[in-house]
Amino acid sequence: MINKIQKVLMLNTEDKEQKKKLYEILKSLPWFKGNEEVPTIQVIEKIIHKIEDKYNIKMTYIMFTNLDETQYYSAMIKNSITDEHVITVNGRTIYEIFTKVLIFMYYKAKKGDL
Questions:
Q1: d(CA 104, CA 26)
Q2: Burial class of residue 113 in the structure, from the number of CB atoms within 10 Å of its CB (0-12 exposed, 13-18 middle, 19+ buried)
Q3: Cα Rg for the chain, rounded, in angstroms?
């Protein structure tokens, strides 16, 4: 069975409704509540680094790849102590990757899984 965070990570921003849903989730995070502007990638990146500094999680690489004639990016998330692979996040743009990584890290931190 697919859980809530897996559904979020599977959203495809090429679909307007799914893109809207991803941005709604992003804007529901505590750093962006009440702010009407879409957060910049620089702001998202800074928050990711703060989470990485506080918890045992890190984004270790971003890679561009082709699969079935579809181009996308993937980012590996690892435990920063054990260096164990946690998850690979996929997206069509760097912004989508950073958005999904932030949502995933926030979800894991909130659950106490880090």
A1: 10
A2: exposed
A3: 14
Q: What is the pLDDT of residues 87-106, one digit of tens each?
A: 999 999 999 999 999 999 99
Amino acid making up residue 19: K
Q: For the chain, which residues score pLDDT lower than 70?
A: 1-2, 114
Extract the tokens encoding 13: 């921003």
What's the predicted TM-score (pTM) here? 0.90
Residue 40 near residue 48 (C-beta atoms within 8 A): no
The dihedral sign for the CA sequence 85, 52, 19, 22? positive
Domain boundaries, the chain: 4-111
**Is 4-111 assigned to CATH 1.10.3470?**
no
